[in-house]
Amino acid sequence: MQLNIIGSAGSYPAPASTCSSYLVRSEKTSILLDAGNGSQSHLYGVIEPGELSAVVISHSHMDHFADLIGIYHYLKYAFPPKSPIPIFSTGEVLEKVKYLVGPGLIDRSIFNLNEIAPGSEIQIDHMLMRFYHANHPVPTLITRLRDHYSSMCYGADGDLSEGLLAASKDSDLLLGESTWVERTDNFPTGLHLDALSLALLAQRSRARQLVITHVAYPADKSKILEIVKKNYAGASHLAEDGLTFSF
Ligand SMILES: [Zn+2]
Ligand SMILES: [Zn+2]
Fold it and tell me: How far, in Å, from the CA of 160 to the mean position of ligand 1?
């Protein structure tokens, strides 16, 4: 599998980084995980949007789904896909997409909207995706992906949970969020992870490699990496827009 970091900024864009979006490829299958604000401009350099096999949107926060609307308009009015692109997400996201495109206006030759829930499984070619419940204020899906050779977990947004532990267990790569360096009283539970909780999760789930993302500017990324390396024995890396990981 190959993971392309399209956008890695947490909660809002950073000076040189757009919001969450990741492309996972296995042979001819290309799955886009999230399309946060600004990410569409980076997507063009990596894949033609009409060639996506599917899009999964984890939840309804703008830093994870805003640019799905831009992708829709690009496909509708510039370069239509050969067949409708399947979109998988929560009912809440799908309602927002319909509202933002315009009531009754979604062209089904462009997007094929599919509601999924924790426990759902979707097979796209030889890529299997399973979804888990995240501990976040709105309905949020964690995605585990597996092909013939390897597995990965995209934790989306959310604090520690049974779903996150199950989804990341024994994965070859865990793409996990550390919005904050450290948890303080300003940062409530049930919202996001900090560096230490992400490291302990990766250690406990025996993920073989950790890619740290969704750091909220101007948090100190080098401090996050330092805390993670002290508390997690596997290989750890900071996500940056444009990076590629093969595993
Ligand atoms: Zn977010
Ligand atoms: Zn969120």
Answer: 15
